[in-house]
Design brief:
The chain is built from 3 helices and 10 strands; from the N terminus they run E-E-E-E-E-E-E-E-E-H-H-H-E. It has helices at residues 112-117, 119-148, 155-172; strands spanning 11-14, 19-22, 25-29, 39-43, 49-50, 55-60, 72-77, 94-99, 107-108, 173-177. The strands form 3 sheets. A 4-stranded antiparallel β-sheet has the order 2-1-6-10. The two termini are 16 Å apart.
Length: 189
């Protein structure tokens, strides 16, 4: 017997289409002689019915709760080029490394050929990535501040808080299949 794993109005990721959609209708398929539906499909407004295994839910990423710590920008020695061969680099003989672990390893590095192609751009990326935890905290603080007193916030600040919230959701939300448990009774659909 089938049970509904999503409910009407719920936002889902349609994997085969690669798009977000809302459940418009929960459609149980009944068969004579059975007390429960034999199959449940979902209409999300994309032209056909989808089964639960084609849909994913957005959920909070457990890794986002571990704290970002302090990401640092370090310089590593370029083993493939002598400083004299790369005088056009901002820091000849080195390349940026963003360290995201307390043990000074793990994080973001760039291939030497890519760095040599556009060192200014890679240096900017490294600074941006190293500042990402601070920017994320700043965005969360803005969202929290506006959430405390939304009626007192100017419209421009409300707009910025909504944008910050959407960006944070894009970072902290991941997709997962629907839980096996019943979210809503099919009979009520």
């Amino acid at each position: 017997m089938a049970r509904a794993q999503f409910q009407k109005g719920q936002k889902v990721w349609v994997e085969c289409v690669g798009a977000w959609a809302f459940i418009e209708q929960v459609q149980p398929v009944w068969a004579k002689g059975f007390e429960e539906p034999v199959r449940v499909t979902y209409d999300v407004g994309l032209g056909r019915e989808f089964t639960a295994n084609e849909l994913l839910l957005a959920t909070d990423d457990p890794a986002s709760d571990q704290g970002l710590g302090d990401w640092r920008l370090l310089r590593a020695r370029n083993k493939w080029q002598l400083p004299e061969d790369c005088l056009h680099h901002p820091h000849p003989g080195t390349y940026p490394v963003v360290v995201t672990d307390r043990a000074d390893w793990g994080g973001w590095r760039v291939p030497g050929a890519e760095y040599d192609r556009d060192p200014q751009h890679i240096e900017f990326q490294a600074r941006l990535i190293a500042a990402a935890p601070q920017l994320m905290r700043l965005a969360q603080d803005l969202v929290d501040l506006v959430a405390e007193t939304p009626d007192d916030a100017p419209p421009a600040v409300l707009t910025l808080a909504r944008q910050a919230r959407d960006v944070l959701h894009g970072v902290t939300r991941v997709l997962e299949p629907a839980p096996d448990r019943l979210l809503s009774p099919v009979a009520a659909a």
